[in-house]
Amino acid sequence: xxxxxxxxxxxxxxxxxxxxxxxxxxxxxxxxxxxxxxxxxxxxxxxxxxxxxxxxxxxxxxxxxxxxxxxxxxxxxxxxxxxxxxxxxxxxxxxxxxxxxxxxxxxxxxxxxxxxxxxxxxxxxxxxxxxxxxxxxxxxxxxxxxxxxxxxxxxxxxxxxxxxxxxxxxxxx
Length: 173
Prior knowledge:
Elements: H1 7-14, H2 24-42, E1 49-57, E2 62-64, E3 70-78, E4 81-83, E5 93-97, E6 100-104, E7 111-121, H3 128-144, E8 152-155, E9 158-161, H4 169-172
Antiparallel strand pairs: 1-7, 2-6, 3-4, 3-7, 5-6, 8-9
Helix pairs in contact: 1-3, 2-3
């Protein structure tokens, strides 16, 4: 899994100079951990990669893929038979749209693990909102490291309260 942001972007957000390298190793680890957390939390990969899925045939002429933003389908094999690329709903073979693979003149015959699909899905670059969430999660973890376990602090009669949530409601959405 690739990181969802860069060290330079996090340092810019934190207002750190590019030449300051004291915490670069720590920030890099936080970036990798925050990226993994976001991918796990959202149950999806963001950067483009190739997937090789083995699926159960459903008896239909369409099958939804596990990953979003499908950009190419390299092959569809059903019960050992390679299905040709159709390219459109009118041509016999397979074609795709969104997360779906469609068949014309064929069916995803009922069976367990009898369908093999190789496809590419994801974005060439991380969506800006996802990258910003990663940056803010890293910044939050970085800033909170000096007050682990603290919920509030009394400073000369004034109480300062800290959020203990990893993700704000904005980030969760």
